[in-house]
Amino acid sequence: MVTEACKKNHITVNGQVAKASKEVFATDKITFRKDQITQIITVLDVPENRVGAKLVDVYRKNETPAEAYEHLELLKLSKEHYRKNGDGRPTKKDRRDIDDFGNQKTE
Predict the structure, then answer these.
(1) Any idea what the Cα angle at residue 38 is, between residues 57 and 77, rounded to 5°?
(2) What does the pLDDT look like over 43-75, one tens digit per residue?
(3) What is the model's pLDDT at position 84?
(4) What is the DSSP string of 7-56?
């Protein structure tokens, strides 16, 4: 996933487009776009070996502005307001019920 993003020039390190093989060092700023938010991550330190997912936050600092997350929440609310979940194209069963209702003979 990250390799594809690097190939498409979606990830920058210190303002320069990064390849997948780019080495990062402490104090490097990594910028990428995820969920309509431009994320900014600062590398605090590089571990000697691989670490588990729970320990990753020890080596990085998220510097994404809080306004970006607020903007994401507003986008989610606006989409929900525009079209409620469940409203939209009827399911196959709904279409069959509608067809059956329209094809009933009245006496």
Answers:
(1) 100
(2) 999 999 999 999 989 999 999 888 988 888 888
(3) 61
(4) HTT--EETTEE--TT----TT-EEEEEETTEEEEEEE----SS---GGGG
